[in-house]
Design brief:
39% helix; alpha+beta; five-stranded antiparallel β-sheet; OB fold (Dihydrolipoamide Acetyltransferase, E2P)
């Protein structure tokens, strides 16, 4: 009697298979990474320089006299881990400047990141007044310049105009470069995509359990998969990470398939000899979605010769030839190594997953 696929797929087998094919911890790791990147984006976004916005305010914004309310160190060489870390830890690279200005009887506030060198050269300090540029349609959209407010009052004396002042005004850029934020957005989307892909893999693997079909298959190849790591001494070391198993089987509809799958279950995979018969359980509607039961199973599955001949089709002859060749080779080895070789009446042992003749 042919093995029943539903009976073979016990809760423990399902757990082992899903853990090997698409562990839930993979999705958790991706989504945790996405959350971490999102937190960084939220905290970093206000500190990102926006050259396009600065240029738009320079061309179309209006000037206002802004007073510095306070300053705090925003970026230091300690936080940026510069190459001068060992020599000048804690040196301020950029300041976060708080300021306010009045427009139409209302007070508006803003913050701007100013490099430390611009703070020193412009004499920027608490209580000092500098020019700010704001959007007349939305004064909350504003930036601080390094131009002292007294310049605006002395335009007539110097012969300058507001338009000429626009060309000479300098908007400091002491925040985080915009490409850093773009990189973080990319990492965030990539992490979400990785988590979504991992969940899709788990859902796809789980579809096997809905309508499983069990058939015998011929294990044609077992490829070792290694990962290369670098040791502290600078040497490369290869470590066995798993196996890529290749099988051939005939579906219940008579179609022949030659497929492969990767597994991290190293001991179970190494115990399956190439050329042996294994049990493949696949999704009825999509035979390419399959598992090798012996990698996760709790018991041996035995197929008698009639079942193998009926379910394997032309693969059965290939299996028989391989087994006969292996038996002959084993017999020659036994004659050379043992003074009393076994007789034909002593019987034989079959591989895991193959029934007695």
């Amino acid at each position: 009697m042919s093995p029943n696929a539903s009976e073979l797929l016990t809760p423990n087998v399902r757990k082992n298979f899903l853990g090997d094919r698409a562990s839930i911890w993979g999705a958790v790791a991706f989504f945790a990474g996405a959350v971490a990147v999102l937190v960084v984006i939220v905290f970093m976004a206000p500190a990102v320089d926006n050259p396009a916005r600065y240029e738009a305010l320079r061309k179309k914004g209006r000037f206002a006299e802004a007073e510095i309310e306070g300053m705090s160190a925003a970026i230091t060489e300690g936080s940026s881990r510069s190459r001068y870390w060992h020599h000048s830890r804690g040196r301020v690279i950029s300041y976060k400047v708080y300021y306010h200005f009045g427009v139409g009887g209302k007070t508006y506030r803003g913050t701007h990141y100013v490099p430390a060198r611009d703070v020193r050269t412009s004499g920027m300090r608490e209580g000092a007044r500098f020019l700010a540029l704001y959007d007349p349609k939305d004064p909350n959209n504003n930036v601080l310049t390094t131009m002292p407010a007294s310049v605006l009052k002395g335009l007539e004396e110097t012969g300058q105009t507001v338009e000429s002042l626009r060309e000479s005004v300098y908007i400091p850029r002491g925040g985080v470069a915009s490409w850093v934020l773009l990189l973080l957005y990319f990492l965030f989307v990539a992490a979400l995509g990785g988590g979504g892909y991992w969940i899709w893999r788990r859902i796809k693997a789980g579809r096997i359990f809905n309508s499983p079909i069990a058939v015998p298959a011929l294990l044609t190849d077992r490829e070792v998969v290694t990962t290369r790591t670098r040791t502290s001494g600078g040497h490369n070391r290869e470590r066995l990470s798993g196996y890529r198993m290749r099988v051939r089987f005939v579906s219940h509809a008579g179609a022949s398939f030659e497929l492969s799958c990767y597994t991290k279950r190293r001991d179970e995979a190494a115990a399956l000899p190439v050329g042996s018969v294994v049990t493949v359980i696949y999704e009825e509607a999509h035979p390419k979605n399959f598992l090798i039961y012996e990698l996760y199973g709790e018991r041996d599955v035995r197929w008698n010769e009639e079942e193998l001949r009926a379910k394997m089709g032309g693969l059965y002859d290939l299996y028989r030839r391989r087994r006969e060749a292996a038996s002959i080779e084993s017999g020659h080895f036994s004659e050379k190594s043992s003074p009393n070789p076994l007789s034909d009446d002593d019987g034989h042992t079959t591989h895991k997953g193959i029934g007695d003749d």
